[in-house]
Amino acid sequence: MVYGIIAVVISYLLGSISFSIVIAKWVKGIDIRNHGSGNAGATNTLRVLGKGPAIAVISLDIAKGIVAIWIGHWMAGDNEWIPVLCGLGAIVGHNWPIWFGFKGGKGIATTIGVLATLAFLPALYAGIIAILSIVFTRYVSLGSLLFVFLTPILIGLFFYTLPLLTVSIVICIFAFWRHRTNIVKLFKGTENKLGAKKG
Known about the structure:
By secondary structure, the protein is mainly α. It has 10 helices and no strands.
């Protein structure tokens, strides 16, 4: 149990490394949270810094989620709860990073890493639908919400474990909460589309 708690804490600290903030500071000497949409994530990095930094951010954020699950498996043995809680810890760290004043991103890239590692097929199917929605609407937020909404449903249909289903639902709730302003903008038709410049 002690090793499990340590694993979750390590995963949170790992998740708290906000690569969009780090890379924006390194590339342009700015705090990404003061530019564009103000979100410390890959989409805002794309708007403010361009494709190269955005690809680096999304890749590293996904990697955080993957590594967190590995840490959970390595330190927890056969305990089914610890790896999923480590994944949740990494997402919480991304959203509320201790290293950056608890003001982080929305956690979708890290969520992709977590869910794809824990439940590959449900995440793949949900991801395909999410990507198609982004291609046709150019709303990244809509694709993100579809991904986190559909994945728990597909996890339930594929008869995955209770810990995984429970945490995937919590992740979905987190994502909808973090995207609450985007949801309002989607309904109003004022949400930024992929490729649009802001700030």
